[in-house]
Design goal:
With 353 residues, this protein is of the alpha+beta class. The chain folds into three domains: 12-72, no CATH class; 100-193, Immunoglobulin-like, CATH 2.60.40; 207-352, Roll (C8orf32 fold), CATH 3.10.620. It has helices spanning 12-37, 53-64, 207-216, 222-236, 241-246, 255-261, 266-278, 325-330, 335-342, and strands at 45-47, 70-72, 100-102, 106-109, 117-122, 129-134, 138-142, 150-153, 159-170, 173-184, 238-239, 263-264, 284-291, 294-303, 307-309, 347-352. It is globular, with a radius of gyration of 27 Å.
Length: 353
């Protein structure tokens, strides 16, 4: 490939209110039956229970009609919120060895598929190896390491994935050396977008992770973290035209190198931002597709109570854009560039990592 660059949860009160109207008559009949069985000298009864506000109001209304008064202690529902890690939170992939498949030339470690990834190692003699991982879309990767595992994500959620390993024969012809179906049941739907992989490679102590923690330190919440990281990338990384002119198929970003050199191609921009945000426990997708006629890379971010943000470029205090840091940087944040990037129809996603 050549590269040119918490949805809102439904509170218990809302869910319960849908049941109140349907059960009102049953509730009245139940209370009337209870009233008939109560003794004449019954005093106040106090019940400490957790129930919805609507149920509580209906119960108290019926009590006023003549039943013994029932007091209810109503606990407020907790609101799930983003919790910024102390420093950083890197989910380091591990080849545990508990579930493996192999044939002498390659090994697939599927021990941690529930965490959103598989690890593959090639031990043969060929120099060019391809991996294909398919569910509804076929993802093709180069396997670069020898006698060491590399990490590949399950970005299409739970289900059955086909994993195939190929050795190069000549030119663009490859012979299949291994094929294995793997059943994946994610324990966390966001896991593939929080974990390092071949395209978004970071680790505890890496420069990108440390810079992400530094940028996040002053942020009050996840939106603040994204704002700081986004602004840093577009203001401190310049587009590397020389690299863009010479990049070859199979290129992978080195996020620490990009950070040190303060320059990169679009793939580098997106990978650096993705690494920083993932290390701050913010689900982030590195997306590859087309922007106009260019094969391009950008990022989508998940914000609690908003969902995946993928169609707006800059943050105006209220809304996020399809955050494409390359165009925003090289375009000097001009209005025309913002309008182009802000139009989601200008982007056609092909792969997500």
């Amino acid at each position: 490939m050549l590269y040119g660059c918490a949805g809102s949860s439904v509170p218990a009160e809302t869910a319960a209110s849908a049941n109140v109207a349907a059960s009102a008559e049953n509730g009245k009949e139940s209370v009337e039956n209870e009233q008939k069985t109560e003794t004449a000298g019954a005093g106040k009864a106090t019940a400490a229970v957790t129930e919805t506000a609507e149920d509580s109001q209906e119960s108290l209304g019926l009590a006023d009609a003549g039943a013994a008064e029932t007091l209810a202690v109503i606990e407020d529902e907790a609101v799930p919120l983003y919790q910024k890690p102390a420093g950083s939170d890197v989910r380091t992939p591990v080849a545990s060895g508990s579930v493996t498949y192999g044939n002498g030339r390659a090994t697939i470690d599927a021990s941690n598929t529930s965490k959103g990834y598989v690890m593959i190692k090639y031990t043969g003699r060929q120099s060019r190896i391809k991996i294909q991982i398919a569910k509804s879309t076929t993802y093709t990767y180069d396997l670069n390491a020898r006698d060491a595992y590399e990490v590949f994500p399950f970005t299409e959620g739970s289900g059955t994935y086909s994993i195939k390993i190929f050795e190069n024969v000549s030119g663009n012809q490859y012979a299949q050396v291994m094929s294995q179906n793997v059943s994946v049941s994610l324990s966390d739907e966001f896991a593939p977008f929080l974990t390092p992989n071949q395209y978004v490679n970071f680790w505890n102590g890496s420069a990108a992770v440390n810079k992400g923690a530094e940028l996040a330190a002053s942020a009050a919440d996840e939106i603040g973290v994204v704002t700081n990281v986004y602004n840093y990338v577009i203001n401190n990384i310049t587009y590397d035209t020389a690299r863009a002119a010479s990049v070859q198929s199979g290129y992978l970003p080195n996020v620490d190198q990009v950070l040190a050199e303060h320059k990169g191609i679009c793939f580098d921009y997106a990978a650096l931002m993705t690494a920083m945000l993932r290390s701050q426990d913010i689900p982030t997708k590195l997306v590859i597709g087309y922007s106009g006629g260019l094969y391009h890379a950008w990022v989508n971010v998940y914000i609690d109570n908003v969902g995946w943000v993928d169609n707006f470029i800059y943050f105006d205090g209220h809304n996020w854009s399809l955050m494409d840091p390359t165009f925003a940087s090289s375009g000097g944040q001009s209005d025309s560039i913002k309008q182009y990037i802000g139009n989601g129809s200008n982007y056609q996603a092909k792969y997500t990592y």
